[in-house]
Write a structure and sequence with these properties.
about 180 residues; alpha/beta; five-stranded parallel beta sheet; Rossmann fold; 6 helices; 5 strands
């Protein structure tokens, strides 16, 4: 049975190494009949969470702020799998991805107990270095708190400039991870 997959791509470079990984992942996922929707967060009008606890009154547009999150919410709610994709910035995910993920709390506010929808998840990251420990810690804790299940991680170090990832074995790893989803 095909899965609905949403990719939240927090890279500011639409043609960067993170996007090369998500493209490889998407190719594999679509080859096995899955539906993939990717959002390039950097080009979207997304404001930061205000911590107002005012969301959840309208589950079609759960946040009180009206911006491009309203494009993401329907895909997020319907998704079986959420892919968090980001370059490594100061040993963690990009601000674009963190800000967007914070705003997903408005969906949890639609539930009287503030439960987030149960999802499977994947972490995809590219970096100049190879120290993903802090970002993995954040991702693992997030998963545990939300009750999500990780389907895998693709962490590609040694890629800084656009195109550095060409020929890297992590591209095949990302494609295989996508193809494994059935």
């Amino acid at each position: 049975m095909s899965k609905k997959i949403i990719i939240l791509n927090g890279s500011p470079r639409k043609s960067g190494n993170t996007t090369a990984l998500t493209a490889a992942f998407t190719k594999g996922a679509e080859e096995t009949g899955n539906q993939v929707t990717e959002f390039f967060l950097d080009g979207m009008n997304i404001k930061s969470c205000k911590g107002c606890f005012g969301g959840g009154k309208n589950c079609d547009s759960p946040c009180v702020q009206k911006d491009d999150m309203d494009k993401i919410y329907p895909f997020y709610k319907e998704a079986d799998i959420v892919v968090l994709a980001s370059p490594l910035y100061y040993w963690n995910i990009s601000g674009q991805l963190k800000m967007t993920f914070d705003r997903l709390f408005a969906v949890a506010e639609c539930d009287s107990e503030y439960h987030n929808p149960k999802k499977d998840s994947i972490l995809i990251m590219a970096a100049e270095g190879n120290d993903f420990e802090e970002s993995e810690y954040w991702y693992n804790r997030l998963e545990k708190h939300l009750g999500w299940k990780s389907l895998g991680k693709v962490l590609c170090g040694g890629v800084m400039a656009i195109g550095d990832i060409q020929g890297n074995e992590k591209l095949d790893e990302a494609r295989k991870l996508g193809a494994s989803i059935q």
